[in-house]
Amino acid sequence: MKRDKTPRVFKHIFVPIDFSDFSLQALEYAIPIAQQFHARISLLHVVGPATHLGEFTYLGLNETEQYRMAEKRLHAIAKTRVPEDLLEEVIVNTGIAFDTIVETARTMKADLIVTTTHGHTGLKRALLGSTAERVVRHAPCAVLIAPVRRRRKNANPTAILAAAQSTAPGGEM
């Protein structure tokens, strides 16, 4: 298979946020990439059935209350963490996380999804599956799975940017 030597240009970067520290680290990677490519960033949070994600709990709230709470929190993250000139939009949708992430990326014609994995292994991963893995399998664009570490101070996207640039059209590497 012949590789396309043309560098990938990202114009619309999509970052799913579940309010965990891990997903906020993905945003740390997305911002310098957006700056380098003069791209825009969209944030998405998915309110799903019986949602309990990261440090953010919806127990006891109806779907409307969950949606409002998530929207408020996601807008706060956008305001405090994403430079205004990079922010495209903030989206809260309901559904199954990986399906909603993939469909929203497709609808908004994202060029790159930046996400992380929570690193579940063994039985928990077998039972729950990996949202990041499912996104990679079904995404309509390139996907960057940023490495996570507990208590990271600074992300270093330059270490992975070369790999993201060499992605051939159609998501093949």
Compact summary:
This protein is of the alpha/beta class and 173 residues long.
What are the defining features of this structure?
two-stranded antiparallel ribbon, disordered C terminus, 173 residues, 6 helices, five-stranded parallel beta sheet, alpha/beta
Explain this structure.
This protein has 173 residues and is of the alpha/beta class. It has a single domain, classed as HUPs (Rossmann fold). The protein contains 6 helices and 7 strands; from the N terminus they run E-H-E-E-E-H-E-H-E-H-H-E-H. The protein has helices spanning 21-37, 63-81, 97-107, 122-128, 131-138, 158-165; strands at 12-16, 40-47, 52-53, 56-57, 87-94, 112-115, 142-145. The strands form 2 sheets. A 5-stranded parallel sheet has the order 5-2-1-6-7, with helices on both faces. It has a two-stranded antiparallel sheet with strand order 3-4. Strand 3 and strand 4 form a beta hairpin. Helix 3 (97-107) runs parallel beside helix 5 (131-138). The longest helix is centred in the middle third of the chain and has 19 residues, at 63-81. The N and C termini lie close together (10 Å). The model is unreliable at 51-55 and 158-173 (pLDDT under 50).
